[in-house]
Amino acid sequence: SDHLGEIIADADGAECIIRATLDLDQAQLARRSWGLFRDRRPDLYGPLIGADSPFTGPEELKSRFVL
Fold first, then answer.
1. Interatomic CA distance for residues 50 and 11, integer angstroms
2. 9, 17, 40, 61: least surrounded by Cβ within 10 Å?
3. Rounded distance, CA 67 to CA 58, Å?
4. pTM, whole model, 2 decimals?
């Protein structure tokens, strides 16, 4: 699939090699418009990962955030 999820080549369930041409410039332009990193706050990462962080590890996180 391309950067928008559109199928551009299909194997039809058979074993094969698929070749496709992608426009990487177009994909990069589209990704910039998604705004994934717009609201990042790297200034807050330190307290989350530092030695004095209240988070001790994955098990401790599981007990706090049970889905």
1. 47
2. 17
3. 14
4. 0.41
Residue 2 pLDDT: 86
Per-residue model confidence as pLDDT tens digits over 40-49 = 887 777 666 6
Helix (H, G, I), strand (E, B) or coil at 51: coil
Q: How far apart are CA 58 and CA 21, in angstroms?
A: 41
On the CB side of 34, how many CA atoms lie within 13 Å of its CA?
A: 10
Residue bearing tokens 């989350």: 48
Instruction: Work out the number of other CB atoms within 10 angstroms of the CB of residue 27.
Output: 13
Give CA separation, 28 vs 1, 13, 19, 45, in Å.
15, 30, 20, 26
